[in-house]
Amino acid sequence: LGAAARLYTEEDPLVILGSSSLKPAVTNSSSAWLLQFYSSWCGHCVQFSGTWKSLALDVKDWQRAISVAVLDCAQEENFDVCKEYGIKFYPTFKYFRAHAAATDRGTIHRGADRQIQSVRQLMVDILQNHTRLDWPDHCPPLEPYSAVELLPLLGQRSDHYTAVITEEPGSYVGREVILDLLQFSGVEVKRALSTDLPLLDALKITTFPSIYLLQPNGTHAHMHVEKRLRFFFSSLLKTLPGVQRRVKSHGSPSSAGQMGALADGQSTEPWRDFSRSTVYSADLESALHYLLRVELATHNSLEGEELKVFKDFVTLVSKLYPGRGSVVKLMETLSDWLLSLPLQRIPYQAVLDLVDNKMRISGVFLGAELRWVGCQGSRAGLRGYPCSLWTLFHVLSVQHEATPTALENTGLESEAAPVLQVMRRYIRTFFGCEQCGRHFEQAASLSVDAVRDGGQQVLWLWNQHNMVNERLAGSLSDDPLFPKAAWPSPVLCASCHEEKDGVHVWNQDNVLRFLRRHYGVSNLSPKYTL
Ligand code: FAD
């Protein structure tokens, strides 16, 4: 069946079932299941796969209550199981209640409308159709609470926040936010109805849906939300101080372990206060310091492709780095030196000598120690270098869009997306986390060539970074103080977020405006530089 058979891959945020895994998965499961039986030769299934993946992504955090899955009936080994489950047409949607019996063949769902929003609401309905006896183990209550239950909580201390979403009776937002927060600890979400007059009176609620927040210390107040949308409510609650994503038991320990090694060296440092809406030169300089003195040091000498990649990287930074002049000077010197050498092979020690000597003799300066600020981790092994490397390339991409002629006569000017191409080559050749490099190269090989101008380059990197965030959320390398999430959050940029047909979408024009400002020269703070 070739490529067509792979409508869904392990990278998609859903479960791929087959003849031997279907029954064990859905029988007596702690969660409910929504399963699409499809056929990889059915054109409609092919067209629909994008929607199904988007749905799965949209409800990824609901998995412990209800899982989204697919099964390909066109694969020979699945013929029997599709027959056993009575599948005659493709796609067929079936759901299985939690704790289903082994004889349960699921219930067919025949919704004419297969929009993400209506399937998502169907999932809420499926959950609510459970009884007390078979309620999915990890699904919190979805019924509304009443004033009698909620008002006594006011003023009480607790070890977590309680968020009360008050909404019109037909609204799904409250239940969706409850499920969005399922993977997070430190906050409990409850819903109440706009028809509960004693509650509205007591809390002075006049608009719906709205959030009322009970803090752990007993204080309580309305929460300001820029837009009354599910994504805004969920994002705000996920970023409350102390609210944490539960770490996945699986994840990718190998790359997380590698990242840990890369980010080390920051454990005994005092905490540096910083703002999440600022970019710090100290992080960029620490990135260069680590790159030149640690990452490169694992290569005894540079030759061939490695040498070329390193030269291009140094040239790029020397032309586009918007931070301190002394750093630019050092990179220029390094670049001139590399270009003037007739050698095919340069010992690493020579690079190091030049960096150190230049600094000593002429005051050309690059901080000689790691000083993470916006990239501080809550403990050693988290954030640090990889965080600063992302930041550096975002800054360079924005700077390239602002000064497109800066790369003239460097050999890089003919590339449509020079920052991405140099980053891609650098990551592939030198970045210590091998698995990260493989993932990045895979993504780049698929779409970097389509980037036509500076704005698209900035957005490509932003989008790719968000895909990595999404993949890593809840993994071992996720710092609980800085949980990975779609970025920028509504707090940083409300106008970047919109909803279309009930699904979160980005306003890319506003994202680009935001990125230009956030990673632009005027938002670069020299605080904490040496
Ligand atoms: P980071 O993701 O490092 O982000 C740093 C800062 O950038 C954030 O604090 C935020 O201010 C800003 N930011 C966040 N998202 C965006 C965005 N979309 N656009 C612009 N700015 C943003 N780790 C793995 O375990 N597996 C991998 O496969 C992997 N691949 C990587 C590939 C590359 C090219 C790089 C540079 C790193 C990779 N990492 C990988 C490391 C991982 O992405 C993080 O850098 C690391 O876990 C530290 O995370 P952090 O919380 O500091 O945030």
What would you note in describing this structure?
It catalyses: 2 R'C(R)SH + O2 = R'C(R)S-S(R)CR' + H2O2. Residues 246-269 are annotated as: Disordered. The protein folds into three domains: 2-128, Glutaredoxin, CATH 3.40.30.10; 147-245, Glutaredoxin, CATH 3.40.30.10; 253-478 and 512-525, Four Helix Bundle (Hemerythrin (Met), subunit A). Helix content is 41%, strand content 13%. It has helices spanning 22-26, 43-58, 79-84, 116-128, 147-150, 173-180, 197-203, 230-238, 253-263, 281-295, 304-320, 325-340, 348-362, 385-402, 418-429, 434-447, 454-472, 508-518; strands at 15-17, 32-38, 66-72, 92-96, 107-109, 161-167, 184-185, 187-193, 210-214, 220-222, 244-245, 279-280, 301-303, 345-347, 497-500, 503-506, 524-525. Strand 9 and strand 10 form a beta hairpin. Bound molecules: flavin-adenine dinucleotide.
**CATH classification class of the largest domain:** Mainly Alpha
Tally of structural domains: 3
Cα separation of the termini: 60 Å
Helix content: 40-55%
Bound molecules: flavin-adenine dinucleotide
Rg calculated over all Cα atoms: 26 Å
The largest sheet is: 5 strands, mixed
Strand order of the largest sheet: 1-3-2-4-5
CATH level-4 homologous superfamily of the largest domain: QSOX sulfhydryl oxidase domain
- Count up the helices: 18
Low-confidence stretches: 1-5, 250-258, 260-266
The CATH architecture of the largest domain can be named as Up-down Bundle
Which percent range describes the beta-strand content? 5-15%
Shape descriptor reads globular
Query: Based on DSSP secondary structure assignment, what is the total number of beta strands?
Result: 17
CATH-defined fold name of the largest domain: Four Helix Bundle (Hemerythrin (Met), subunit A)
Give the class from helix and strand content and strand pairing.
Answer: alpha/beta
Mean pLDDT: 91
EC number: 1.8.3.2
Cofactor: FAD
Protein name: Sulfhydryl oxidase
Keywords: Disulfide bond, FAD, Flavoprotein, Glycoprotein, Oxidoreductase, Signal
